[in-house]
Amino acid sequence: MGGITTWLPLFALAYLAAVLYWARVAAVENGNHQSFFSAGHSLAPWISTLVIGGAALSGWFILGGATEIARTGFTLPAILQAGVVLALPGTILFKRLWYAGERLRLSSQAELFNAHYRSPALVAASVAVAVIFAVGFAGLQLRAVSVLVSDLADGAVSRAMAGLVLSLVLFGYVVIGGLRAVGYVGVLQTVLAAAGLAGLAAYALLDAGGVAALTARLAAFAADPASAGLFSVSGVIRFTAGLGRDETAVTPTALSSFGLAVALLGFQASPLALKLVLSTSSPRGLAAGQTWVAACVFGCLILVGVAILGGVGLVNPAKAPSALLTSLSTVSPWFGAWLVIGLVAGVQLVAGLALIVAGEGLVRHLYKPYFHSRLDRRATVVLARIVIALLALATVLMEALSPVALSALAGLALPLAAQLWTPLLGITWFGWISRPAAVLGVGFGFAAVLLTEPMGLQVLSFLGLDLPWGRWPWGLHSAVWGIAANIAAVLILSAIPRSTAQTSAAADLRRFFASRLAMPPRARALAAAAWSIGLVWVFLAVGPGLVFADVAFGRPGSGRGWLTGLPSIWAWTAALWMLGVGFVWFLAYRMDMAAPSHVAIAPYEPPRQLRPDQRETERARLRTAGITVAIFASLVILVALGFGHLAAR
Amino acid sequence: MAEAMPKQTERGLLVFAIWATLGAAGLCFTLEGLSRDALMLALAGTGAVVAAFVAHMIVNWVYGQGFTRGEATLGIGAYGLLALVFVLAWLSGGVDRAGYLAGLAFFGTLGFGFVAYLAARHGLRGTFSQFHVHGSATGEPK
Questions:
Q1: Which residues on adjacent β-strands are paired with residue A471?
Q2: Per-residue pLDDT at A367 exceeds 90
Q3: N or C: which end of chain B has fewer CB within 10 A?
Q4: Contacts of A22 in chain B (CB under 8 A)
């Protein structure tokens, strides 16, 4: 009945037809260019909920997370705890951000930063993160899927061609239907990706001989002293110089898990997730979405599906996730084709969202306000489409020509996005975070991330400055170094009496939150309990408490074996995941942090101001920007020639 | 500021999502059963397709609609085409025992389900009227 080369194109055609159909529906509903960027704020809550969950799940967890477990064992339990970790920021931030967007009539993170802090630096930071997600994060995943498709086609389709076709489909539906198409197609992509993960995990389990056979193999592995370390975290922390500088830095510790969890917090603080939240018609789905969709359903899929895929790959490296797909495609090409399409869909979901947000950011939030304010709406949309095309092209070129740089760039996306937590907290909960504090916090955070990631280290090395540490010193993810520098800067600057006044929009938001969204007395009474539960959960689930995880539910060779039949660290993670879902529910509903408040929202009326003719200023600004870029590039070349790699040649 | 999203769109998305998962799973299980001569796998495929129909009808009920004209055309067309392929394959002797039983179960279940759905929705008389061509006042078919 035909092999994978027959069925994959058939399933791909069906997928393409569905994608283009919904892109067309979106374009018709958009009517014109008015709602290209935000779908007229009309996305149904369930759509946003599903798509945010799907984008967070994306292809990374299906292939990346499982491959990581297959390689390093269960030493990074934060991977399996991702459902709860990804849901926490949404529970804490989304409700107030949605109301802020509705009050100020805004639809993106960059606009919120501009209105609340009046800071071009924060706007630029938000846009930069979106671009890195679009080119780096999504590009790396597209590359992984292109390689998989090319391998499955047995070389009939080259990797470059597979990447080009995938990017063309992506570009097509994004420019046709804008954010509305990303939302509509995202629903299909989410269910396909989730079904793909569930199906692949089921096949992996069947192929391994069932649950009993898999756990028996895992127990044998754990009983062997040579591989016992794959089932435990290696202490709380190890003071190493980082990857690339110290061989012992490879083994993850408990705080390595904490670092990964902090990085994962970045997704929901990224402009991607907020774009969907702010384009939603109502906050009704936020609590249910974070609790039941993200933490519970997707969390369970990750905890079970990814763990099974990784576990099977661990006991039999020939059955690592991508090899498993190849083997499935041989014995059952239709199932193989369906699951591959699920993976492609999961990757395209996050890539499409990133492209539209990055395109909007570059055109609507940077170019238009600072260099060409007379650009009308239609021209803005046309320009954004061109920029999206260029970003997609850049992604394809980087996939084909510089995969190492792509990988380094991708590594920056989550930790940089995590740095946007502080300005977002300033908008939602901590009004005392002033503009200078937020800007400097993000600046220091970005610097610390760059100094502990290969991209920054390589750039400095190119300029002749070799730092004495490698990637992730002390085994701590760059997100942790960034957030530590970020919080320190924010606290120090916020302690200094403020000289800068709040913007009128920020003052209005503070009054609005205080009068309409104040925590009810019942929730206030529970605040101490919430802090306590939260800290205990973090300590046990992704923090130093993980050192108990490998023995808490028994140990092979101890006479009793594993009490639940599963590796102790897996069972520990499952128990903490259940508590984590409860904690998210507690925050969302009992603490009223995500449950919708039924308040009427009158639009904020900013003070009327005359808008002087900006043309001369914008021309001067453009000249200045050009000269600055030229000087900066010259300086870089000069430094590299004088001290760096070019001098060494 | 928010405009309402068309209910028809929400319903359409749910229908697509159902068929992209349950429908595709049904197709894959059926093919797997036929290729392995495994009746239970093929029946699992039929079960998944029936589950997709039930989910589709639940969505229809939630949104207060029936099947659209396009859905009905596609469904009946696909059913007819598959039935034709099955009969031709049977006549040419290309269907083994598992395939034969799975085919009967598939077409029988869906055919019975279709009639039962119409009867439940329109009543027996109304069901007949769905297919009966009424004459118009001018004597021309409508």
A1: A243
A2: yes
A3: C
A4: 13, 16
Residues A588, A510 share a domain = yes
| Residues A428, A418: Cα–Cα separation, whole Å | 16
Give the burial class of A298: count Cβ atoms within 10 A of its Cβ; 0-12 exposed, 13-18 middle, 19 or more buried.
buried
**Within this chain, do residues A84 and A145 fall inside the same structural domain, yes or no?**
yes
Q: How confident is the model over A430-470, as pLDDT tens digits?
A: 989 999 999 999 999 999 999 999 999 988 888 888 888 98
Q: Is A191 on the interface with B (CB under 8 A)?
A: yes
Asked if the C-beta of B34 comes within 8 angstroms of chain A's C-beta atoms, the answer is yes
* Average pLDDT, integer, range A336-364: 93
ipTM of the complex as predicted: 0.87
Q: Is residue A305 part of a domain?
A: yes
CB spacing of B1 vs A41 below 8 angstroms:
yes
Q: Take residue A156 and report the two structure tokens written for it.
A: 């009939």
CB contact under 8 A, A184 and B9: yes
Q: What is the pLDDT of residue A412?
A: 94
- CATH number, domain containing residue A193: 1.20.1730.10
Report which DSSP code applies to A306.
I
Three-state secondary structure string covering chain B = CCCCCCHHHHHHHHHHHHHHHHHHHHHHHHHHHHHHCCHHHHHHHHHHHHHHHHHHHHHHHHCCCCCCHHHHHHHHHHHHHHHHHHHHHHHCCCCCHHHHHHHHHHHHHHHHHHHHHHHHHHHHHHHHHHHCCCECCCCCEC
At residue A98, the 3 state secondary structure works out as helix
How much is the pLDDT for A403? 86
Q: Would you call B1 and A603 a contact, using CB atoms and an 8 Å cutoff?
A: yes
A349 domain-assigned: yes
Distance from CA of B89 to the nearest CA of A (A): 14
Neighboring chain A residues of B42 at a CB cutoff of 8 Å: none
Residue A352 lies in a domain: yes
Q: How high is the mean pLDDT of chain A? A: 90
Do A258 and A115 fall into the same domain?
A: yes
Q: How far apart are CA B56 and CA A311, in angstroms?
A: 36
Q: Please indicate, yes or no, whether residues A520 and A641 belong to a single structural domain of this protein.
A: no
Q: Are residues A305 and A248 in the same domain?
A: yes
pLDDT, tens digit (0-9, with 9 covering 90-100), for A464-516: 888 889 889 999 999 999 999 999 999 999 888 766 667 888 888 899 998 88
Inside any domain, residue A73: yes
In this prediction, residue A321 carries a pLDDT of 83
Residue B3 has a pLDDT of 64
pLDDT of residue B59: 94
User: A353 and A480 share a domain?
Assistant: yes
Q: Rounded to the nearest 10 degrees, how much is the dihedral formed by the CA atoms of A239, A244, A245, A246?
A: 50
Could you tell me if B4 lies within 8 Å of chain A, comparing CB atoms?
yes
3-state secondary structure of A532: helix
Per-residue pLDDT, averaged over A187-209, amounts to: 93
Q: Are residues A330 and A373 in the same domain?
A: yes
**A186 phi-psi bin (left φ>0, alpha ψ -120 to 50, beta other):** alpha
**Total number of domains constituting chain A:** 2
Gap between the Cα atoms of A365 and A372, Å rounded? 11
CB A148 within 8 A of CB A340: yes
pLDDT in tens, A117-136: 999 999 999 999 999 999 98
Instruction: With CA atoms as reference, report the closest residue to A125 among A329, A415, A550.
Output: A415
Residues A625 and A562 in one domain: no
